[in-house]
Write a structure and sequence with these properties.
Layout: H1 4-19, H2 25-28, H3 38-58, H4 66-70, H5 81-101, H6 104-107, E1 112-113, E2 116-117, H7 122-146
Antiparallel strand pairs: 1-2
Helix pairs in contact: 1-7, 3-5, 3-7
Length: 168
């Protein structure tokens, strides 16, 4: 069984997908400035997954041009939604083996990147990443409301999919 924080990340992933059901490709690339478009958010979360859970621990990059399209500090872009979901699925699939390997001990380790010890442990990075999902989920819902979308999810989904359990 995966660590409880990994289960919370997977719950956040599921909720992110649930919150974007019914989003058209046209609305996904629509920018209501200063916000980025929603398809960018999908790619952006994949960028972080790729960096934290694939590239840094294994040295592999699953989707090479993803950072240029959706990385932090890059110019605004409006990538196609289908391409971003494809990248997100490839990256999250590649990330899962590392996430499944996380233990109490490894969550306390600080990864090395470019010969430097990272300032956050894997556990802190996991907390950050879960929060990042919820941040962009709220932002995407706000944008969808501004676009006039109706019948959007009103609250966090079935928390019983990732209930509290003590860390072991």
């Amino acid at each position: 069984m995966a660590h409880p924080l990994v289960e919370q990340l997977r719950f956040a992933r599921d909720e992110f997908q649930r919150n974007l059901i019914g989003l058209s490709p046209e609305d996904a690339v629509r920018r209501l400035e200063p916000s980025n478009c929603i398809s960018w958010m999908v790619g952006h979360l994949a960028v972080q997954e790729q960096a934290y859970w694939v590239w840094w621990p294994t040295g592999q990059i699953v989707v090479p041009d993803l950072f240029d399209q959706c990385g932090w500090g890059r110019p605004a872009s409006t990538p196609p939604l289908e391409a971003m979901w494809s990248a997100w699925e490839q990256v999250t699939h590649a990330a899962d083996p590392f996430l499944d390997s996380l233990t109490i001990e490894t969550l306390q380790q600080f990864p090395e990147r470019d010969g430097q010890t990272h300032s956050e442990s894997y556990g802190t990075m996991l907390h950050r990443h879960i929060g990042h999902y919820w941040y962009h989920m709220g932002e995407a819902n706000a944008l969808r409301q501004q676009m006039g979308h109706s019948n959007l999810p009103q609250f966090v989904g079935d928390q019983n999919k990732a209930p509290y359990r003590p860390e072991r």
